[in-house]
Specification:
The N and C termini lie far apart (69 Å). The chain is an alpha/beta fold and 375 residues long. The chain folds into 3 domains: 168 residues, no CATH class; 42 residues, no CATH class; 111 residues, 3-Layer(aba) Sandwich (Glutaredoxin).
């Protein structure tokens, strides 16, 4: 029994540490996933708290995983892990059954897994953690209490420190389709090995006050225009395809008249893009730092653009700065959330390929990078 307990303890501990670290690399990603759940359930009052909830949850997974491996406060942590995994199993089960949202984000964007896999994983973890809760008497601390407390304190600092760094300076490991080195135009295409959905044309007619649906190859035997009144037609999916969506969807840069400038921007030899989804969240600290980037871009004759979900607020925000005349483009807020994991984020593109990306604390580095580019 003891060997089984130790194996289960190691598996559960390592999995929680791994899961916490992967999500701690991009806490905003989990925050956005939480917002999806709250939107589905109509719980909009939590929208402003999801980032804090994400940070706390990621840190707890790391701490709890190490506590289990080291045998620290086992009674407390087996209780907490059991409660957490029951909640997680409910969430992944809900996603699997309803398809809303499409994925639960259990391992962030770095390791996308299907809702079915997520649910089965959590069912297995529920069994393992329940077993550990039952047999917790066999779990002993690896060393003395003071040493364990100090070790967990350091781990706690690391769990929160890593997330502070990634929120301030962007993820350490970028797993998003807008990562450095990726070509945005290529990522906007459907993968070459994609399998499209199989669809059939379905007709809707009305007969004797009732609506009847049938496909083009299964017209009713008594069909005639006098007794059947046409209502509509649509494509019905009979078999879902696979991998048939582009990694980057909805990346459209539009001007004041809604003219699409996406191709124009992506075709530039070099271009600087400043992403700001929400001006109030971004604050004002980025302005002076971006002026340096903008100045270097002008010296190199490199066009700079401001991409935001709030174009109407751009003029008032940039007034009095050296970039007050910057070209402003509107983009969907969800797309900006994917492209820019920071309130203010600068991209340098070379014919649509991401050469570099920086959050506002790194704008000085971005300016140096722009200065190093050849005309």
């Amino acid at each position: 029994m003891k060997i089984t307990v130790h194996i289960a303890r190691i598996l559960v501990g390592l999995l929680f540490i791994f899961s916490g670290l992967v999500k701690a690399n991009d806490p905003l990603g989990l925050s956005y996933k939480m917002q999806e759940f709250f939107e589905i359930w109509g719980l909009h009052g939590f929208d402003n708290r999801t980032q804090l909830m994400s940070v706390l949850m990621n840190a707890f997974e790391i701490i709890a995983g190490f506590a289990l491996l080291l045998g620290w406060r086992i009674k407390l942590f087996t209780w907490l892990l059991l409660l957490m995994i029951v909640f997680f199993t409910f969430l992944t089960g809900y996603t699997y059954i309803t398809g809303k949202p499409k994925t639960c984000g259990c391992f962030g964007d770095c390791i996308p897994i299907t809702s079915k896999t997520s649910f089965l994983k959590d069912v297995a973890l529920t069994v393992l953690i329940g077993f550990l809760f039952w047999q917790q008497k066999h779990i002993r601390p690896l060393f003395r209490e003071k040493g364990l407390t100090l070790t967990l304190f350091v781990i706690t600092l690391f769990g929160f420190g890593l997330q502070w760094y990634t929120l301030k300076y962007l993820p350490v490991v970028d797993c998003l389709p807008f990562k450095k080195g990726n070509s945005i135009p290529e990522k906007m295409k459907v993968p070459a090995h994609a399998i499209p959905d199989s669809t059939v044309i379905t007709f809707v007619y009305k007969k004797d006050g009732k609506q009847i649906e049938f496909t083009a190859d299964k017209f009713p035997a008594d069909f005639n225009p006098e007794t059947y009144q046409f209502v509509s037609r649509y494509d019905k999916v009979v078999r879902k395809g696979r991998n048939n969506e582009p990694p980057i969807k909805g990346f459209v840069l539009s001007g004041e008249s809604n003219q699409n400038f996406t191709g124009f921007v992506l075709e530039q030899p070099y271009a600087v893009l400043l992403f700001i989804e929400n001006f109030s969240k971004a604050g004002n600290g980025w302005k002076k730092k971006f002026e340096e980037v903008y100045t270097k871009a002008k010296e190199k004759n490199i066009p700079a653009f401001l991409v935001t979900a709030e174009p109407g607020k751009a003029a008032a925000t940039t007034a009095g700065t050296s970039f007050s005349t910057i070209q402003v483009f509107k983009c969907d807020d969800k797309v900006i959330e994917t492209a820019a994991r920071a309130p203010a984020c600068v991209y340098v593109l070379e014919k649509g390929t991401v050469r570099g990306k920086w959050s506002s604390p790194g704008f000085t580095s971005a300016a140096r990078f722009v200065q190093s580019l050849e005309n």
